[in-house]
Write a structure and sequence with these properties.
The complex is a heterodimer of chains A (323) and B (307). Chain A is mostly helical and 323 residues long. Chain A has 2 domains: 50 residues; 224 residues, Orthogonal Bundle (MetI-like fold). Helix content of chain A is 72%, strand content 0%. Chain B is flat and about 95 Å long. Classes of the chains: A mainly alpha (323), B mainly alpha (307). Chains A and B meet through helix 1, helix 3, helix 4, helix 5 and helix 6 of A and helix 1, helix 3, helix 4, helix 5 and helix 6 of B.
Chain lengths: 323, 307
């Protein structure tokens, strides 16, 4: 065995001698340039972060400025009360109610599917399912939200509609019912994952307290955990509503694009979003009233989404619980 | 306590426990509805589209005849648009996340930026299309080009990238930063050489999920006025002469996979529906494999890192 010994190699000077160590002003200059670089990088990063505010400003500016030109030609009152939507005809009518009815009916169908199923799935996964089921089910549900919406549209038009027509032979080929049902399935993972997170955040001691009083799992889930997580569950529902209202391709493919003032989901109808798609598919000159119409429709959509979000914010505040 | 009373209590307990069983059954049923729908969708696509899947389908341009139509211009368009999206969204998104996590002071500007990012995530995708139509296409004069589409999708996935990156950065323990500061590293050296390196898998997961979302987005790209029938390819980014690389392609008109599929789906001829299903199947495979990769990465991450 060799005995360790100190050789000359061990006390050699460092391979890279530090530069400028002999001169104070050089060192200060180096420090200044380093400081300058740090500040420059911080500013650059701040610009990246502030960019998102710019995007919002851009959205608001574009929607409002184009809509402003639109409302100079079409009175707001007509826009809100007219019962016809024929912007591309000679006899043009701009009644947003027509598109709004399509959006609301299809969203209602979707939410009637997504909210009950999503909530039950969330309660099941959070309170009942064994660990292994949850580990498998959650990624599978996530895949559901990863499917492109145009694929859902194809599925609604060429798979769900024929099945529905089997039961209701008078159902037209384009209808809001099948589009809404498929949209509901698409929204389930959004509702379930956010509400599940909220329920899992409820402290274990609350469940234990409930069990100690002799409550069953179901009673605990429904009477203790769900009320405690109500603010998070509300957030999940609002997220679902925003998704449904803003969804475009499923409706453009499967619900037809004829404007139709109706509250019957079995009829075809255009929504705000599918109208925008329809106009964009055609060739409208920049600056024409038809071009501005889609910005007015977009503004309506934005206001609708915003209204639901404000409502959600308010509800969340009301139901917020501190443990 | 009398025998009868005990019996009564037992029945009460049994009745309440029955609700547990019923709920579990309902829960599994609901889960099954969701998951089986997904499989029905995937299998329907596969059965309808399988006959069209051949090499020709990938190397042919769209055509008036369903049997000869392919997705060449669509997949090339999707690839190029995604390239622009990644180049725009990743630096800005990661930069924003680094600023918010490492640099930002707690003041109203930071609060504004944070609220703003949350709200942007909730903006319907078609509204981004309207923004891009007004801004990129007309105000900036990019036209209905790959550049406009790529930037639109970049804006769309920016909140996803930012949120994922922030989460990844937050999970790096402060001991790592303190060690770096202790040996004299500056803030940026600490962030770039240590914090960002450690959060790389998390960032990657966010970027992949964002890109998977972007690949499937149709509405904003239709809104900026992408064409649905393109029978040529944009200029190649590589040229024979100096400087060997050209950016002409970013201003080329284009189509992407989801738009091609939408176009075929909305035709009445069922032969085109087969094409749509085949294109949809490819689209599904792309987004799902990206999502699966992200889920796998996240799973690996949770298992392997023990601070």
């Amino acid at each position: 065995m060799r005995t360790p010994s100190i050789t000359n190699n061990d006390i050699l000077p460092p391979v890279f001698p530090l530069p400028y160590t002999h001169n104070v002003s050089d060192r200060l200059a180096r420090r200044r340039s380093r400081r300058l670089r740090e500040v420059f990088i911080e500013v650059l990063l701040f610009v990246c972060a502030a960019f998102s505010v710019l995007v919002t400003t851009g959205i608001v500016y574009i929607l409002i400025s184009e809509s402003y030109s639109f409302f100079k030609m079409v009175p707001v009152w007509d826009f809100l009360t007219d019962t016809q939507w024929t912007p591309l005809f000679d006899d043009a009518h701009y009644g947003i109610m027509v598109l709004l009815s399509g959006t609301l009916v299809s969203s209602a169908v979707a939410l009637l599917v997504a909210i009950p199923i999503g909530t039950v799935v969330a309660v099941y996964l959070s309170e009942f399912a064994p660990f292994s089921v949850r580990e498998v089910a959650k990624p599978l549900l996530e895949l559901l939200s990863g499917v492109p919406t145009v694929v859902y549209g194809f599925f609604a038009l060429l798979f769900v509609t024929p099945i529905l027509q089997h039961f209701f032979p008078e159902l037209p080929g384009f209808n809001m019912l099948s589009a809404g049902l498929v949209m509901g399935i698409m929204i389930i993972p959004y509702v379930s994952s956010v509400s599940e997170d909220a329920m899992r955040a409820v402290p274990m001691s609350m469940r234990e307290g409930s069990y100690a009083m002799g409550a069953t799992r179901f009673q605990t889930a429904v009477r203790v955990v769900a009320p405690a997580a109500l603010s998070g569950i509300t957030a999940a529902y609002i997220l679902g509503i925003s998704r449904a209202v803003g969804e475009t391709m499923i409706l453009a493919v499967a619900a037809g694009m004829q404007p139709n003032l109706t509250w019957n989901p079995a009829e075809p109808a255009a929504t705000i979003t599918s109208f925008i798609v329809q106009v964009a598919l055609g060739d409208l000159p920049h600056g024409s009233i038809g071009y501005q119409t889609i910005f007015a429709a977009g503004l309506t959509l934005m206001i609708l989404t915003l209204a639901f979000n404000v409502l959600g914010h308010w509800l969340r505040r009301r139901f917020r619980q501190a443990y | 306590m009398t025998q009868a009373r005990v019996q009564e209590i037992r029945e009460l307990i049994a009745r309440h426990k029955r609700w547990d069983v019923i709920f579990v059954a309902v829960g599994i049923l609901c889960l099954a509805i969701a998951i089986l729908t997904f499989f029905a969708l995937a299998i329907d696509m596969a059965i309808t589209g399988a006959s069209r899947l051949s090499l020709d389908f990938f190397t042919n341009f769209p055509s008036r005849r369903a049997g000869q139509a392919g997705i060449l211009s669509a997949w090339v368009g999707t690839t190029l648009v995604m390239l622009v999206t990644a180049f725009a969204a990743v630096p800005v998104g990661v930069g924003a996340a680094v600023y918010l996590e490492e640099y930002a002071r707690k003041n109203w500007i930071t609060g504004l930026i944070e609220i703003n990012i949350t709200n942007l995530a909730g903006v319907p995708s078609i509204v981004y299309g309207l923004l891009a139509l007004g801004l990129f296409v007309y105000a900036f004069g990019f036209g209905q080009s790959i550049l406009s589409a790529g930037l639109t999708l970049a804006l769309l996935i920016l909140p996803i990238v930012i949120v994922a990156t922030r989460e990844a950065i937050r999970s790096v323990p402060s001991a790592v930063r303190e060690a770096a500061y202790a040996v004299g590293a500056t803030k940026w050296q600490t962030t770039y050489d240590h914090v960002l390196r450690y959060s790389m898998p998390g960032v990657l997961t966010g970027v992949i999920i964002g890109m998977a979302r972007a690949i499937g987005e149709t509405a904003p790209i239709i809104t900026i006025g992408a064409l649905t029938f393109i029978a040529f390819l944009p200029d190649s980014p590589f040229t024979g002469e100096f400087p060997y690389i050209s950016f002409d392609w970013v201003f080329a008109p284009f189509t992407v996979m989801p738009i091609q599929m939408f176009n075929w789906t909305s035709r009445p001829d069922p032969a085109f529906h087969e094409n749509a299903a085949a294109a949809g199947l490819m689209l599904l495979l792309m987004t799902l494999s990206m999502n699966a990769l992200a889920i796998f990465l996240r799973y690996r991450l949770r298992k392997s890192i023990k601070w």
